[in-house]
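Appendix B. Raw example, untouched.
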Amino acid sequence: MIREKKKVFAGRNVVIVFAAIVSIIGCGKKENRTDVFRLNIASGLNSLDPAQMGSIAAHEIGMQIYDGLVKLDERGNIAPALAKRWEIEDSGKTLRFFLRSGVKFQSNDCFPGDTGRIVTAGDCKYSFERICDPRTKSTGWWLFHSTVVGADDFHDAIERGETKTGVRGFEAPDDTTFVVRLTRSFAPFLSMLAMPYCYVVPHEAVEKYSENFFQHPVGTGAFVLDHWTPDVELVLKRNPFYWDTASQGNIETINVSFVNDTKTEFLEFTNGELDEVSAIAQGFENAVFDESGNLQGDYKKYTSLSLPALTSEYYGILLDTTEDAAKSSPLATNVKLRQALNYAIDRDAIIRYVLRGQAVAAKGVLPPGVRGYDSSRSAYTYDPAKAKELLAEAGFPDGKGLPPLTLELGPSEQTASVAEAVQQQLKQAGIQLELRQVDFPQHLAMVREGKVPLWRTQWVADYCDAENFLALFYSKNFSPAGPNTTHFTSAAFDALYEECLNASLPDAQRTLAYSTMDSLVVASAPWIFLYYPKTVRLLQPGIGRFTVDPLGYFPIAGIVKR
């Protein structure tokens, strides 16, 4: 998924001003109860219906309310949730899930007597078919489209106004067995089932609340919605009948605010009114972190939790000379020029001085945390001599004869700060880089339509599998229909990619194939590889058992607050 980063940086004066504000408002500090966890969601929240859970905010709250068949653990592995175990059959085309016994939906007046009820395999079938039903308008339809047997027939028949009894590929032979049949073996499918679209819901709640179900969520998770005033406040209470009693902490209530100004949010955190914050506001980054990313000064009293996100930050290059934007671009056909640009960038300096240690230098497409990432790879380390050598071999000694390159980027100040650093580094190699900022929706549309020869963006994983990144280079995924915006093509890459879709491929072979595909892309350099941002959380003192999965989400059920 392509997203625009929101973090920004500013100068020392802003830090001083806001530090003064912190001291002024400190006397208004609210009571800090040990059984209440307080967080803010600056981006707002539009829906708590899993069928529409495409946003970060919806996922953060949804994972407290719902469960899926499987989930991600903190190492990025697929772990049991509602399904206690599963079997993969028929060379990966059939997945058979065995549900836990006795798990109940949360108490809600959609059930007789407001007592909840036991979850069955029929609920899994119902929940997944909702995603395939065009009347639901689910943003997660792509998970099952063309992948699950009968999903397209079901979807298209309903669109035509016909009656369909269900999706053939979703079966519930008994109350505790749920079967998914795929049109082909697709190894990442199990990882995809950990996404919020696949949370299990009861039909009673959907039928009772109808189009307002998004405000009345009912799941099996550790917390139950108490009340929600959009853009003001949301409160969750502990579910007393939650099935996973072994992982419980001491949090009874979650209070969520929706302050959309990151400065105010950060000030509330430093004033002790929030227990966690992830967006370090403009002007505070340099005060909070030293160049290595460690907390410094007064901020040492907090706990910093940091790990590389499943995100790759890069500058993309359009290689397809049938597109007008690439016809006059020297980058499109000159691999040595693309490699020269990669060697001319000092990623470590950018991470130290611009990002304050909150990133890891990119070694390729795949970030740490996914199968196939190679920490020993030394591709495109900063090497000015190598950059000049390749520039000469490309036909532009010391940059002579090379026209200025234009990099298009979105409006983020952090994006601009990084681009300005890159601009200065390339200038030292004789390469002139001009910057053009446009609104992100326009920027993204132009990239997908092949109207930009060189652009900045990032790819944020939808699910924890290397395939989600490598799909950006599969030749059958050309944009705008697919995510291959560079129009990279390699027969060797395609053959490996298709081989890896087979779920029966041994793990060692898959890991080697993923790493080899990454190397093929690195050699061709359709990207200027930058860095992998880190997921950073600041926590108040006294908060323990706080864990974050590789996608940056955290379950609150297990937190202990003292």
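End of appendix B.
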